[in-house]
Amino acid sequence: MATTNAKKLSELTGEGLATLLALVGSSDSVELKITLPEHEQQSTIAALGLDPLEAQIRQIYFFDTPDLQLNRSGVAVRARRIQGRSGDTVVKLRPVVPDDLPEDIRRAASVNVEVDATPNGYVCSASMKGKVPNADVREAVGGRGSVRKLFSKEQRAFFGAHAPEGLGLDDLHVLGPVFVLKQTLVPVEYGRRLVAELWLLPDGSRILELSTKCPPAEAFQVAVETRAYFGGKGLDLSADPQMKTKTSLDFFAARLAESRA
Predict the structure, then answer these.
(1) Helix (H) or strand (E) holding 114
(2) Whole domain around residue 50: which residue ranges?
(3) What is the mean pLDDT of the chain?
(4) What is the mean pLDDT of residues 16-43?
(5) What's the confidence (pLDDT) of residue 168?
(6) Handedness of CA 139, 141, 147, 152 (dihedral sign)
(7) What are the backbone angles phi and psi of residue 179, rounded to the nearest 5°?
(8) Which residue has the higher pLDDT, 4 or 209?
(9) How many domains does the chain have?
(10) Could you give phi then psi for residue 241, rounded to 5 degrees?
(11) Is the pTM of this model over 0.85?
(12) Which of 4, 136, 184, 220 could join 123 in a cystine, given CB atoms 3.0 to 4.6 angstroms apart?
C-alpha cells in the first residue's frame, strides 16, 4: 500500500481513494494544510486578520548530514525553542504504513501517526515527540552541549532503528534556525481552530502555511468545509505547495556547503 501520493486529492479515484481511506482510518489524526505563494501572503494575512503581535515566536532547528542523508532515508530530526513554554523535540519517520509499525511504537504515548494532506497530495508519518528546556536546545545548537542528550532514550532508540547504519545523533549537523511566527485563531465563519505559521528564512524568503487538525472520522467533512472556507477567502488552492521542512533543509544544506567550500 502506498503511503504518499503527489496526485491532487480532487483527482483521486478508485484505488487511490481506497488507499487514502485506509491510511486515515489507521491514523491518530489528520492535518489539512496549504501553503501560500509569497505574492499572496500579505493579502491572506489581511483577509484572516492575522496580527504578528499576537503570534508565538519559535526557533526551529533541524539536524541532518550535509548531503541530507537522513531526509533521503525518510527520517527527520528537529528541536524547537518556543516562547512562553518548554521546547520540544521530534524524530519523525515518513512515509509509513500505520499497521506495519511495531506494536510498542504504534501504542506509545509519545508517538502520533498522522496523515498530512494538501490539495496536491498526502503523506502518512509517525512522530515521536519529547519535551526539552529551551536553554538545553540553545546550548546544544551552540556547540556547548550534546545533540543526543536533547532526545529521550525512547527517541534515540526510534532514531537508531530507522537512521542509516552507523549514523548517530551527535554526527548530525545543525541546520537552522528558522524563525517562526505562529498564531492560532477560530474564524467565526469557519468555526474551527486554524493555525497560521509564517516561516522566515535568513535570505528573506517566507513560507506561510495554514492548517487545521481533526480526528480521522471527521477528515472528509472537515476537508470540504476547509476548502469552502479557503475558497471563500480567495485563496489559490491549485498552486504547488512549498513544503516547510524540505525547503528549510535545502536552504541550510546549501549554506553549509558554501561555508565548507
Answers:
(1) strand 111-118
(2) 4-260
(3) 92
(4) 91
(5) 96
(6) positive
(7) -90, 125
(8) 209
(9) 1
(10) -75, 150
(11) yes
(12) 4
